[in-house]
Amino acid sequence: MNEQSLGFVNQLIDKTEQGKLSWSTGFEDGQFKTLLPGGKLAFVVQAKGDVRKFRMLDEKQETVLEETITKDDTENEPAHHPKFLLYSAIGKLQTSARSRALQVNEKLAKAEKLLAAI
To answer: CB neighbours (10 Å) of residue 23?
Structure first.
């Protein structure tokens, strides 16, 4: 496991939660992607079942960094172990990316207004 991956994932979580990154749906189920300003780097995050994936791509769509981690990989690891931390962080990033890509908060607010108007 690449230690840098956890750093990138945590930075992406922060930037996503601050509203500085926009995400879109990916090609596979549970996958979301973002392109950094200038298009030099793209990040893809996916959580599907017990498998979590994180990829960094360059401007030519070449994979620079890739992590695939399963729940089984973390089963016997303590909570502070890098594999466990990365598994958790990728899950959190995927949840945040999904929320941004699907505009979940906006849709929930709209639903509340519609229901209140009935």
So the answer is: 23
The pLDDT tens digits of the residues spanning 59-104 come to: 999 999 999 999 998 888 777 788 889 999 999 999 999 999 988 8
- Taking a C-beta distance cutoff of 8 angstroms, is the pair 113, 105 a contact? no
Strand pairing class (63-70; 51-58): antiparallel
What is the rounded (10 degree) CA torsion for 41, 29, 54, 49?
Answer: 170
20 φψ region: left (φ > 0), alpha (ψ -120 to 50), beta (else): alpha
pTM assigned to the model: 0.85
